[in-house]
Amino acid sequence: MATNENKVQFNIKNVHYAVMTADGETPTWENPVPVPGAVNLSLEASGEITPFYADGVVYYKSSSNNGYEGDLEMARFIDKMLQDVWGYVLNATDKTIIENVGVEPKSFALLFQIDGDADNDLYCMYNCTGTRPGIVGATSTDTKEPQTQTSTISATSLENGNVFARTTSETPEGVRTAWFTKVYTPTA
Known about the structure:
Blueprint: E1 9-22, E2 28-29, E3 33-34, E4 38-45, E5 49-54, E6 57-63, E7 68-74, H1 79-86, E8 89-90, E9 97-98, E10 108-116, E11 121-130, E12 149-156, E13 164-166, H2 173-178
Antiparallel strand pairs: 1-2, 1-3, 1-10, 4-7, 5-6, 7-12, 8-9, 10-11, 11-12, 11-13
């Protein structure tokens, strides 16, 4: 285990999702499923600062935390995630995958790793929703350049206020080892 904090970060990998099965005071998730091919993740903080004026000056400022929103870019979203999160159906006879406009997407936890100069940081965004990934294709020329798929992710808080968890340089090895086996929930 690292004894120093990372000074820099780079390289996203080990993306997993875990479908939320119950929310409320005691949320639960299915076991995390790996999604190979992470290309880029860019989540921006969502919220705003609201000033309150009194006596002719900014008397108080409040800050809202609306979680994070941004894009998850993958080489390709796997069929299992399309089915589990966005409700696509695998036709048993023809083995085709079908999207239906009437199906509501499910909430999920998003787990991933970002490497650093001292150690890797493991993240768990607890309550995510995502847009369906688009369909991308391009003509091959002298070189074959892979086309990627993107989903816009919105990560909001659980009922208890938790938005995400991240490991630190002091996180015990047992917590790190179990990170992608189930959704991390803090101990008392």
